[in-house]
Amino acid sequence: MSEKLKGKTVAILATDGFEESELSEPKAALEREGATVHVIAPDKDSIRAWAKTDWGPNYDVDHRLEQANADDYDALELPGGLFNPDALRQNEQALAFTRHFFEAQKPVAAICHGPWLLINAGVVKGRRMTSYPSVEQDLRNAGAEWVDQEVVVDSGLVTSRKPDDLEAFCSKLIEEIAEGKHSRQHA
């Protein structure tokens, strides 16, 4: 175990239908580096994973979204999956929670379909990002510059395309959290 992220607390915002590896692998990587990680979900004590092609196990929720305070966290991670970000992007509390991290210039990481939540939060315009290929046009329509790379970093915003990119995604997420707050280089 490393001490690189000792004293840092990271929120993972998810609900039913998150891609299992996109929550479990970043959570484990962050904890190995010394971070405290909380799974946050709207109105639930546990959430059910989607494991590649079918429903997976339930994961415990540390805090319900209505009780979570974004000020208590140093960074935010948004796993993908189809169902999870589609539900969260329609939840005003999830959108407000997410916006707070951008307003406070804290690191945010989103993988696969996770950027859907960022689009609805109104925080992607002018950002260089990647995502699952089917989200490309949505990001472009929202004003982002979409690129096909395993991981893209833009002023503390880390994005990746799919579970195959998790190693690079986790590495950059850890790096950005260790660096702390990031001011926008461009609008």
UniProtKB/TrEMBL annotation:
Keyword Phosphoprotein assigned: no
Range of residues in the leader sequence: none
Any coiled-coil regions, as ranges: none
Alphabetical UniProt keywords: Glutamine amidotransferase
InterPro entries named in the record: C56_PfpI-like, Class_I_gatase-like, DJ-1/PfpI
A Pfam family of this chain: DJ-1_PfpI
Residues annotated as domain DJ-1/PfpI: 8-176
CDD domains named in the record: GATase1_PfpI_like (cd03134)
PANTHER family per record: DJ-1 PROTEIN, PROTEINASE
Entry similarity comment: Belongs to the peptidase C56 family.
Protein name: Type 1 glutamine amidotransferase
Organism from which the protein derives: Billgrantia bachuensis
